[in-house]
Hints:
This protein folds into 2 domains: about 95-205, 2-Layer Sandwich (Uridine Diphospho-n-acetylenolpyruvylglucosamine Reductase, domain 3); about 210-450, Alpha-Beta Plaits (2-Layer Sandwich). The protein is α+β, with helices and mostly antiparallel strands. Helix 11 (about 365-375) packs antiparallel against helix 12 (about 415-435). Helix content is about 30%, strand content about 25%. Strands 14, 15, 16, 19, 20, 21, 22, 23 and 24 form a 9-stranded antiparallel sheet that branches. A 5-stranded antiparallel sheet has the order 7-8-12-10-11. It has a 4-stranded mixed sheet with strand order 3-4-6-5, with helices on one face. Strand 3 (about 25-30) and strand 4 (about 35-40) form a beta hairpin.
Amino acid sequence: MIEEDILLNGREENRNSSGPALEHLEAVDSWGGATTTVSYVYRPVTKEQLFEAFQLARRSGLSVGLRGGGNSYGDAALNSEQILLDLRRMNRILAWDPIQGVVRVEPGVSLSQLWQYILEDGWWPPVVTGTSATTVGGCAGMNVHGKNAYQVGTIGDHILEFDLMLPSGEIVTCSRDNNSDLFYAAIGGFGMLGIFTSITMQMKRIYSGYLDVFTQTQHDLDGMFDYFNAYAGASDYIVGWINSFGKGSALGEGDVHRANYLPPGADLAPSQSLRLENQHLTPNMFGILPRSIVWMGMRPFMNNLGTSLVNRAKMISGRFGGTRQYRQTHAAFHFLLDYVPDWKNAYGPGGLIQYQPFIPKETARDAFADILRLCQRRGIPNYLTVFKRHRPDDFLMTHGLDGFSMAMDFRVTDYRRGPIESLAFEMDEIVLAAGGRFYLAKDSTLRPSVAEAYLGKETIAEFKGLKAKYDPEDMLQTDLWRRIFAGL
């Protein structure tokens, strides 16, 4: 049998040509921890190693899935019993123009690495997620949004150009003017058309390491919507937290946080506030409690009674506090999920499933009220609910629209898994009736019929046509692709 040398983990390995070596077989979790699979995991460093992975897949008759920081809640970065490329070692910053704020990076560069590289030059990524652990390639593949989505759109709106390796090994440069069909489909294309090998983006000029932040408690869902409508236009960022246990006149109660950049001259010492050491989170909360163990103290409250008590205490505290104004660093304001390392462990061994619908502004108020009430009737309230405003974008497989989203975390146990899935199916009907959409980076439960209903048959046919053109062997696959789109 012929022996071939392959270089897929940054070192030379002599491997049998029949397929991947068993030593690469690893357990891989969804970020939410509700799904665990096994895959042949490779960690390429160069473009040559990416191509060798495709060759290995051809020889072995396996598919190739892509994984960045592994922060997709569901199965978007899983490829069960197939080849999975972990791209975090492709993490070089290839070019940086501190005058124009244009950066070119490899796909494995994390948001943490990116903001720390550019901050002291007076720049910030225009769109960031709630954790800094996501990679730029993963963000582009899922076309992520942030707390300023209603102002600046998704991350794709700030990508100027990218190089994409097709399964054939060809590298195609794409922009709004060059290979535009692939540009608008690969961004948000969840890794099904090719591998980003470089991404060029425009950063946001800032004049301080601080944001002016305002917080205020809202007593019901109407108050939440009214506050967003009143302040979104005058805020650079705005995000809400909803107490999912609120009922009756308190349905949809919660807190809103909004923030604005400081204008030039407002920070008297910007060179100091922009220094990295003044941005990082301290290792201890309140100067005493190590952040690394906080999740252990959270776990006893991760049940209906415990979370309802915590939420009620938070609401009472907010009502007595009134409107609060303070300055906060960019890192502290944006990366709330990094405040407590491994906080998801508080949900227990079953993990969590997040459900995040996007609903047009005309129908969102009633639809979200119906969803909150439905969760309460089914006895499955979610334990964390995040509320955001959005705008449409031009990308093919978009979740964007002129409206709102509500991200809801559900704790998974053996007993709750089935009821949560049934609840998700019921919520799907409310979302579709309201003209809503879904976010594949968070999804664990979407069915093909629902995807076809919100995306439309023509959009899916166009995307599958591009996949047939650029990936004619259907080599790029994930569990999400097979679950939702492969049979359509």
